[in-house]
Amino acid sequence: MSATSEDLPGPDLGWSLAVLLRRWHEHVEQALADLPHGSRGFHVLTTVAAGEPPTQAALAERLLIDRSVMTYLLDDLEAAELVRRRVDSKDRRVRRVCPTDHGLSVLRQAEELVTHVEDRLLSGLPPRQRDHFRAAAATAADAIRLSAPETDPCKAVLQVVSPAPENVRTAPDHA
């Protein structure tokens, strides 16, 4: 005897967020297939384009990416002429990560693609509620990052987007 959707318990916040994250990750990775490192490269570009160029170490800390992984990621973004590392004028041992003009152009295109994916993903909500959802999610995530800096979001995302087969609960494909 198989369970019907009426027999299943209602989704909780964790399940809802996991479904959204899984679908976001799948569609954003597809949309950003030409960008080195996909969504991770997108997050790096977004961060380095916002204000004062961060140091390589601060960028790794902000995005909670292991420093050695960040080095390889930046090598690839630099090879694609999306970012450049420049020596800090106050400390020659420090490298600041700056977007190139080409990187800023690619970022604008990537932002449009990601926004389109997110709008499709959240199409069940009116536009104003989408904005509120995005703002609330960002506030909650930042509070967690500040209170638990040891949390590795990359590992958390991988656990959600690649769960053990026996733990997979599927939802209809609406995005």
CATH topology-level name: Arc Repressor Mutant, subunit A
Tally of structural domains: 1
Q: Could you give a short account of the major beta sheet? A: 2 strands, antiparallel
How big a fraction of the residues is strand? Answer: 5-15%
| Rg estimate, integer Å | 18 Å
Q: What is the CATH class? A: Mainly Alpha
Order of helices and strands: HHHHEEHHH
Number of strands: 2
Distance between the termini: 30 Å
Record the strand order, biggest sheet.
1-2
Count helical runs. 7
Q: CATH superfamily, please?
A: Winged helix-like DNA-binding domain superfamily/Winged helix DNA-binding domain
The unreliable regions are 167-172
Can you describe what's shown?
There is one protein chain. With about 180 residues, the chain is mainly alpha-helical. The protein has a single domain, classed as Arc Repressor Mutant, subunit A, CATH 1.10.10.10. Helices cover about 60% and strands about 5% of the residues. The chain has helices at about 15-30, 40-50, 55-65, 65-80, 100-120, 125-145, 155-160; strands at about 85, 95-100. A two-stranded antiparallel ribbon has the order 1-2. Strand 1 (about 85) and strand 2 (about 95-100) form a beta hairpin. Helix 1 (about 15-30) crosses helix 5 and helix 2 (about 40-50) crosses helix 5 (about 100-120). It is globular. It starts with 12 loop residues before the first helix and ends in a 14-residue tail after the last helix. Mean pLDDT is about 85; it is low at about 165-170.
